[in-house]
Here is the input.
Amino acid sequence: MAFELPPLPYSKSALEPHMSERTLDFHHGRHHQAYVTNLNNLIKGKPEERQSLEDLIRSSHRDEAKTGIFNNAAQVWNHTFFWNSLKPGGGGAPSGALQAAINAAFGSVEKFKEEFKAAAVGQFGSGWAWLVLDKGALKVTKTPNAVNPLVEGQSALLTCDVWEHAYYLDFQNRRPDFVQTFLDHLVNWDSAAANFAKAR
Here is the structure.
């Protein structure tokens, strides 16, 4: 069964002024759509066509013959996860169990934000910054290109896309400003908390 581009969980203008409608139009409507289209073309008529997206990612990772499948499948998953890591009127701090866990793991929410920003800004080239649950421990990680926590056996709670197409129309080459805006105004802590509750 062919994969489809999932709709955004908000309108394309809902994240303005922090992320423009133009960025979402290009990023979701063109980049994300291209990964979906490419993936469907790569698996059409093959056994992989019957796999779930998650199983496809795990089975194609580190298989040189399936690099194209992995890159496109992982990017479909990563982008869908990213859209749900954002929300209108987001940012601030988590509450409840996730806040307590972040305080225990990092010392404070502010310390977490500093570590997350450092990972996002420090990712050389294209990639992602993540908050993950790894064997019961909260960690900040970064991954290059399409790589994601699924292939490391970790549960993703939150991500920030630091490929240039995620921010260049709004921030040009100012990745630190984009990441700070993500943390201050866009983070969907409700989604992160739900992911945390599910992963525990």
Notes: Helices lie at 21-43, 53-60, 67-84, 96-106, 109-122, 168-171, 175-186, 189-199.
